[in-house]
């Protein structure tokens, strides 16, 4: 049996999905978190069934790509669980009525049942069941209330094949609402005041700026705290062990791979470039703390429901450079890791918008791992070091967006964003999401890092590096003004950006060179993982286009920086 | 009669007509933005940014161009 979860955006389908399957899926409080459908297995009265989390749609009228996809997917379902937002029944019923026209058994899950009470909404579920002709089960997906009953009721799902026009649907919904729903007016609540303050420009814009600053401060505070009080002390204990191992191993290939090069006769976690030294220190002690901090803060922003508001407040500005306000969401995700950023562009409807945002992401948005390393490299210089790097990247992003939207045409489509209601983030979901994202960082970063370290050692011991350096020096030294040894860093940058930035440390670059190298490393290529995702999402033609733009803009920007700094 | 774009903050109005192509109409309809619904304008963003409206307690940000296509009649207080 194949069960489909269908409903409007942001009604809790993913929360229900993860309840039913035990699988980890990202649950957030904004429309369009689930950008691709997810499959899982669940038990329905003892029998195994396949469950599919269909991306949220308002209707099956095929007015958007998501709606076309959802309509297609319905053909393969045996039962539909229609997840309905009980606090917004009227609008949600439109999709319900359309589903009832599809000749597939439907059961309605009335989610956010707990919130109806606070909002003064009372719904007569018996009557609703009668009028729809299918079972209606009130649930609270995040606490699992009613979920067991929902599953037990799946066999009672009924199919209909009544046909209605758009007008007739709304007339029917009018009758249903009239009979089943009572709303008692509620006083202006604290949360409504917050809603108003954060969306009205006069107060909303200063609050948005405050929140963005707070985000940076928090990430830095948490990241540095973890480094200074937890990870550095841990690695201080680890250092003598490595020192001992180094003596035990003596000189030779194994030493080079595991420990790396000794700096002034000692193991140096930043410069030794061995598997057990730099290969562990960089991802765990330099990058992980910031990744963790970033995802914690992002999770709170996502789950509270603030993100769409940020998109709305910035929408007028982004439209001036050819972008939809919601582009802020994939760009923000990309600041964590470009891979989910690229996937997140599915929230944007038009193909050109997606292309522009994907290109900006891969060129001008360093992932958190890279940002952490750039911070480690240039943080000591303060604003003098970090300012030029990030200012350059911002200017590049703005110019790229502007130029691309002018060239490939198509103004950003008109804004339509549902302002999802504020909700208090649930600790359980927040921590699970944080754990899941962090684990996937470790799972990807550590193996790539180790591979990178091995490649570096092979390149050095086989002297291939000298050949490559000579070959690349016209560009690296001529255009960018970097020493030819920086070629290793650029090579490793294809694999992972954090190691690549780390490779600059032993080169003893000047401030100017560090700035140029950081910018060039960000721009010339996203890491290989991102590139593969871009290819899968956008196809060969767009990937090649994006790649050419990367190379071209890196030359220009790197060259200009070399001239003006 | 006026349009959603021109409503003042906090003003309530009833939707009289939604102008535009069939696709736009269908899309607006599925969002419950249709003839006869009461809407309340919350605010509009500067620099020709989107208009924020409330329908049945739910808020939406709608681009200026779209808001102009939605004809409304003010509800007198």
CATH architecture of chain B: Roll
- How many angstroms does the end-to-end distance of chain A come to? 65 Å
Give the total of beta strands of chain A: 9
Strand order of the largest sheet of chain B: 1-6-2-3-4-5
Uncertain stretches of chain A:
none
**Strand pairing plus helix content of chain B: what structural class?**
alpha+beta
Question: What would your notes on this structure say?
Answer:
The complex is a heterodimer of chains A (565) and B (77). Chain A has two domains: 2-183, P-loop containing nucleotide triphosphate hydrolases (Rossmann fold, 3-Layer(aba) Sandwich); 201-564, no CATH class. In chain A, 63% of the residues lie in helices and 8% in strands. Chain A has a six-stranded mixed beta sheet with strand order 2-3-1-4-5-7, with helices on both faces. Chain A has a two-stranded antiparallel sheet with strand order 6-8. In chain A, α8 crosses α9 (201-249) and α11 packs across α16 (368-378). Chain A contains 23 helices and nine strands. In chain A, β2 (38-44) and β3 (47-53) form a beta hairpin. Chain B contains two helices and six strands, in the order ββαβββαβ. Chain B has helices at 22-30, 64-68, and strands at residues 2-3, 12-18, 38-44, 51-55, 58-62, 70-74. By secondary structure, chain B is an alpha+beta fold. The model of chain B has no long low-confidence stretch (mean pLDDT 91). Chain B has a single domain (2-74), classed as Ferrous iron transport protein A (FeoA) (SH3 type barrels), CATH 2.30.30.90.
